[in-house]
Amino acid sequence: MGITEEIFWNIINDIHNKANGDMAIKCDLMKAYMLSLSKTNKDDFRDMFNSVIGALYITDHENTMSLLWRTVGGSDDGYSDFCASLVSRGKNEYSLALKDPVLFAKNNKLPWQILFYEGFQYAVDLD
């Protein structure tokens, strides 16, 4: 059947909820999930992950979100970490950030360690 967008977000949301805000646990859960998949489903999941990350690099969103990111001192490399961490937060937060980055930044109460977290993208790339 493959990994559809709906299945992708159900998995991400489930992992996010089980980790209870702990990024290290979230990465461990993601690694375990990726190791349980067939090669085809791993590839499908990675493709979907890259697609939703890619949407954050579309010009209008990237410019706004990059500006917000640089305002807090983030680097270009850090922006990719931020995008992966944002996806790991689940569909609702991702959709809000994509729809209105300024509102997302204004309402965001997350510790910066979570938004700057480097690692979720590596858990998805695990073979």
A few lines on this structure:
The chain is mainly α and 127 residues long. It has nine helices and no strands.
Name the poorly predicted regions: none
The major pleated sheet works out as: none
> Proportion of β residues?
under 5%
The structural domain count equals 1
Number of strands: 0
Alpha plus pi helix count: 9
The secondary structure category is mainly alpha
Mean pLDDT: 83
Amino- and carboxy-terminal Cα gap:
20 Å
Rg of Cα set: 14 Å
Form type = globular
Helix content: over 70%
Give the SSE order as H and E letters: HHHHHHHHH
Written overview of the protein:
By secondary structure, the chain is an all-alpha fold. It has one domain. Helices cover 76% and strands 0% of the residues. The chain has 9 helices and no strands. Helix 1 packs across helix 2. The protein is globular and about 40 Å long. It starts with a helix and ends with a helix. 24% of the residues are buried. The model has no long low-confidence stretch (mean pLDDT 83).
